[in-house]
Amino acid sequence: MTRQEDSTRPTAAATVVAIALALDMFLYGAIIPILPELPAVDGSAMLSGVLFAVYAAAQLVTVAFVGRAVDRIGPRRPFQAGILGVAAATLLFGVATTVPGTAGLVLLILGRAAQGVAAAISWTAGLALVAAVYPAERRGQAMGLTLSAVGIGVLLGPAVSGQLAGWLGPAAPFHLIAVFAVGDAIARFLLIKVDHRPPVEVPFRTVARGPRAGLLITLTAIGAAALAYLEPVLPLHLDDLGVGAGGIGSAFAGAALAGVLSSPLGGGLTDRLGPNRVVAIGAFIVAAGFALAGRDSTALAVTGLIVVGFGAQLLLAPTLVLIGRLAEHQRPPAYGVAYALYNLAYTAGLTVAPLAAGLLGGLAGITGATVGAAIAAGALAVVMSGRR
Question: Which residues form a coiled coil (predicted)?
């Protein structure tokens, strides 16, 4: 029989995973304000886009392997190994800030790839760990609190990095991140205990064919897409309305803060009302936000952005709980594969949404792009409100 002291405490698991996800998003955003100043990028929009694409590609390639590894050997060792990717990315970014030309670009690409691998590990193994240690009736709130840390990382990464780079130079943010990474590593190795559960050998296709798997993956992609949809088009709209770079950054920070507040709310409501109702509420809120975001008013557009940030997290919080239940459809539960599917869907949403928004924005303008998104979100809300 497993002794209590040999088991990972649920609160410790949620805390350590929250730290890991916050650090991942902090590192993700830290490069944004200094990107135009990096000598290897030299102000190229194409190279900037390549760096963001490398992160997503590395995550997509890695996540399936991580999911299988989590089920075979448990989440502990993969989750602890993920800190190596964070360390490699931080080191490569810190060095690349002063290296021009092809050599600097290679360092940046390798750093972004290492970060994508680390993110795939932290998100898949970390969420599988939280799902495994929390009972189903408490999992929604725990997942909501864990995801709120993502918003904190999104909120602070660009802001802190921009200030530090301005004061101490472009490498300074990564010195700070290195300190955070040491604390993260200590937490991962001290607080996450040995996993005594038996190995699980469940193919991806088996979990993907589980009850409501298609719906859950679709909702995950939609929630991520809602977060990313306005990123390529709303800054241009706000710029046309006379809002400067500082104001645009503050507006998106406000949306991230709204997501921080709504994540634990969505988790708690899922435990009380059930996933379908919470998804319907989140979709209605997102629809209202999209309808406001395209208006020719700075106040309404910024309000719409913040409302979308709030509602999108209500969409995502229930999916984490439902995918946990999908994992438990197998015996023993296949948490690794289930949350790998979640991360694949999430990354797909983040990838497709900006492309769709840019295409619709070019064809129909910002109003057409946001109204189209509002109609789609409203239709989702109606469908989910009618489901049992």
Answer: none
Cα first-last separation, the chain: 40
Average predicted confidence (pLDDT) for the chain: 82
Q: Do the beta carbons of residue 111 and residue 92 sit within 8 Å?
A: yes
- Asked if 102 and 160 sit in the same domain, the reply is yes
Confidence category of residue 132, pLDDT binned at 50, 70, 90: confident
Q: Which two tokens stand for residue 43?
A: 């102000």
In a shared domain, residues 250 and 224: yes
Structure confidence at residue 86 (pLDDT): 92
Provide CB contacts within 8 A for 163, sequence distance 6+. Answer: none
Please give the tally of structural domains in the chain: 2
C-alpha torsion angle, residues 253, 88, 49, 180 (rounded to 10): 10
Q: Which amino acid is at 166?
A: G
| Dist CA 9 CA 20 (whole Å) | 17
Residue-number span of the structural domain to which 218 is assigned:
200-388
Peptide bond connecting 332 to the previous residue in cis, omega within 30 degrees of 0: yes
Q: What is the mean pLDDT of residues 312-324?
A: 79
